[in-house]
Amino acid sequence: MTQPFALDPTIFDGESSGIDFYYTNICIGQVIENGRQVTINTHVVVRLPKEMVGVLVNKSSVITRKGLKVEAGMINTGYQGETSLVLRNLSGSQNKIKPGEPIAKMLLHVGHHPSLRKVDTIVADTNRAPEDSEIMNM
Predict the structure, then answer these.
(1) Cβ(55)–Cβ(74) under 8 Å?
(2) What's the number of domains the chain is made of?
(3) Fewer CB within 10 Å, N- or C-terminus of the chain?
(4) Quick check: is 122 in a domain?
(5) Residue 98 pLDDT > 60, yes or no?
(6) In angstroms, rounded to a whole number, what is the distance separating the alpha carbons of residues 63 and 70?
(7) Which of 32, 19, 104 is CA-nearest to residue 61?
(8) Cα separation of 58 and 88, whole Å?
(9) Which residue, 8, 5, 37, is CA-closest to 22?
(10) Contact 53, 111 (CB under 8 A)
């Protein structure tokens, strides 16, 4: 962590598949107007191995109770540094994040490194139903 007021991430009950991040214990909180977004620095440093990516997602309690949605949150393979996230207020009214409140969850996934290849033509060889075919028989 880069600041003494930063809060350690946690894993709920030690068996959850996600890592919870919290709003820092500083000042009186963060007000987010309806429809607006804010960038929040958690002051937590992460170091992901080359084969892992982190995806910051909503905590169900935060989106359902407060209407705050995580808008951006991809942490690339091999990243090392502070973790920031973007929260948008979709609640319909002004909202406030209080110090110590959970704000997001990070899920870890195996990162694949695709290669791209430029082609001059596209061969339409996929097996798809004709446009006028019946999809379901009832």
Answers:
(1) yes
(2) 1
(3) C
(4) no
(5) yes
(6) 9
(7) 104
(8) 11
(9) 8
(10) yes
Residue 29 falls within a domain, yes or no?
A: yes
Which amino acid is residue 122, in one-letter code? I
Q: What is the pLDDT of residues 99-117, one digit of tens each?
A: 899 999 999 999 887 888 9
Q: Residue 88 sits in which domain range?
A: 17-110
Predicted model pTM: 0.76
Which residues have C-beta within 8 Å of that of residue 75, sequence separation ≥ 6? 46, 48, 53, 54, 55, 56, 83, 106
pLDDT of residue 107: 93
CATH number at residue 106: 2.70.40.10
**Tokens coding 94:** 């002004």
User: Does some domain include residue 117?
Assistant: no
